[in-house]
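Troubleshooting: if your tokenizer reports a length mismatch, compare against these two reference records.
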Amino acid sequence: MNTFAAQEASPKRTLLSVTRRQFLSFPAVFAIARGLGPAQNVFSGVAYRDYSRCLPNYLRDLAAISYHRRNAAIAKLTAPEAVQARQRWVRETFWKLVGGMPERTSLNQRTIGSFERRGYRVEKILYETRTDFHVPANLYIPTGSRPPYPGVLFQMGHTLNGKAWPTYQRCCQGLACLGFLVLAFDPMGQGERVYYPDSSGTRTRRRNSDAEHTVPGKQMLLIGDTSSRLQVWDAVRSLDLLASHPLVDPKRLASTGHSGGGTLTMMLSCVDDRLTAAVVHMGNTENLASADFDPPGSTDDAEQDFLGSGPLGFDRWDLLYPIAPKPLLITVSDLDFLHTYSSQYLRNGWEEFGKLKKVYQVLGHAEQLAWADTPLPHELTYDLRIRTYNWSKTNRRPNRSPTKFSGSPKAATWCGLSTGRRPSRSSKIAAW
């Protein structure tokens, strides 16, 4: 049998059946070994793409385009007319992004109860910002001074007990004793507005109050609506109620809020020019499309993300442009980066504050805009409450804090408990 026939008759060899001696005899092995030697300077193989970075890199490119587009537009705001045009564009664009301005319906305001404290009275009220969309609230009415009073709309951060949160109560009490009539209402999913209750009927079965409005917020996107629209409309209608109160001067209205309430104060400042002053405590003062964008960036609660804003060069700091040049105070916690917000929170916030400061300068009122930071944690602490009292120019600028206060029990501030029912639950949201 010749050699060729012998090879045909023998079993076929695979790479796994080759011995080490046979493998080392292959000429290709020596070529590979030479290529891996220290003398190689250029990679001669195939350069595979790092596919794990495809989506992050794509998002970073989109953010960079949006960032530079917005910067180019802001750089053109060198005259009052240009600023005013930008303000109109911001307001119109915001309403388009969030789903449009709802129609005003009857507030159907009802007073559930009240109680007296030294220097003020609290009325527990219930009203509807949309039909069957109930909002429980507390009105803090001064008793130590004469009306008409300047009005303050106080917007809550994301706490489970909403308007009953101790530091929020203290701030409202202090403002009332200084002569402000204050309206403090429960936002979506907080306090008495629990849409996903557990077996108690009063506590959420979700992991926190943020999920109470973010879960339906995601679902609303499927039908072309947003929680941004519902929440800012709560604020607009609440301001309607405050402005129409017989003891309030409608020409002296302000808004303040902490954390999520600070962000809602930003939104209200964008859409309602009745405000004469605003204080934003630790709101989401960080643009999504920031310099050195680190995907996914500052993607936060559903109402704080505006779908479709990137290609337009619209971002969160634009919300504060329409209120210029009225008094605006912005405070941040130095501990909020990489905790409450993203790693770019402080850097981007300060960068954007500088841009807004130039707009105030163009309008001739640079002193009306201020920034303050604190080393304290994410809370409406005593020093921030003092800043709130001192900042508002609608009434007075006290040099010291009013008397220290203690919070009322949750049951004392709630509206539904007085009637033995929970009227604030909306069938529209609960159905989701």
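Reference record two:
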Amino acid sequence: MLTIQLANSSTFRGGLRARIETAPPAPKPALADPEAWNISHDPASQIVTVFVRSSEGVTAENLRRAASLLVRWLAYNKIGAVSIDLAENKLLAPESVFALAEGMLLGDYRFDAYLSSVESHTIEVNLLTANPAMYENALDRAVVICEAVNLARTWTNEPPNVINPVTLAERAQNLAAEYGLICTVLDDHQLREMGAGAIVAVGQGSNTPSRLIILQHAGSANEKPVALVGKSLTFDTGGYSLKGSEAMLGMNVDKAGAMTVLATLIAAARLKLKTPVVGILAAAENMVSAYAYRPNDIIKTLSGKTVEVLNTDAEGRLVLADALTYAQRQFKPRVMIDLATLTGGVVTALGSIRAGMFATDDELAASLFQAGERTHERLWRLPLDPEYAELIRGEKTDLVNSAIPGRKALPIVGAIFLKQFVDDGQPWAHLDIAGVADAEKRRPYCPKGATGFGVRLLMDYLETLE
């Protein structure tokens, strides 16, 4: 467990101190652990130095990385306390303290709920300053937002025998009650009655049917809400368009978009944002059974548009189609943003560095891009030219759920399909996070597994609206 507190530098005494310094690039050849070049400990002076080896100097991102390395070094060496003098390290701006705390809190995360034996360790970090009050808000915000990121990571990492659409709805209701959110859950019977045929179809092969989970942060501003919509496939076999066994591994992470939405709503409530925010989690489990939907099935969506299923493994766009329609009809949002691990094609295009962004509104796209640059949850805008819609035009139905022909422009096809369910004039952005939602190996302040991508980005964006 990690705790960070502000302490007055004039009265604090003793213990290990940490410094953050710039340094030239590490010598070559690198050690087996490249990060070993970036930290040193002098037992005589009781000073541990973390080196920022970057031509950019001490940026917010480099602070996050340095702080993460520090707490992991402390944990590895079983050191329980450290102090950092903000003035001595030239960390005088509240934004620097925010980034420092982010790196520590995110870097300390572990998903160890299912280990039979876990060695507990407590680290106390004291930030020394002559003016603690100056940094209290920055530290409080960092704690709330990072706890939300780590919540998103944990729930995304949870296995499918623990989180399914039904148990997710129960968990969301409990969390909403704890933090003062309004929570509404629509079950498969209600969804069928209202005409949401797409989300019902995707989940009808499972023993745990689909749920649409709606979370509302009322805020205090008298304006239309920002709607956040998340794909929550609690597990995805691919359905009758069955995934291979290797491709099926890790499909518990296919709920990452919705976990980001849920965590963002929690952070918005805890920080008492003025802006009203609505979160919609489109939850389903895509399984194979006698009741599962099939290729060539024709589905009527909540919007009234019909879709022929060409690929049951292109299910995320179907659950989102009904969720987007519901968001617009029910809340008439000022802005609508969806997040989804939607396509493998975006991984091919952008790897694990940036998420794909599609938008109908240039101002919204610019705002999200800048939020991504500030938080290092980076985006890259991809096109939505109307000609791409020809790839999903049906012959027997309004639309098909997979491209004709073949595997052209896969991330764009997914996005242009969703666009068919966005009203004209509605500012909307789609973030395809398939490449960034899950870390195949440790990253600077994220262990292997779910990353919680998007919580910090969305909170940064929402805070600009305040």
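Descriptive notes for reference record two:
- The radius of gyration is 23 Å.
- The first strand starts at residue 2 and ends at 8.
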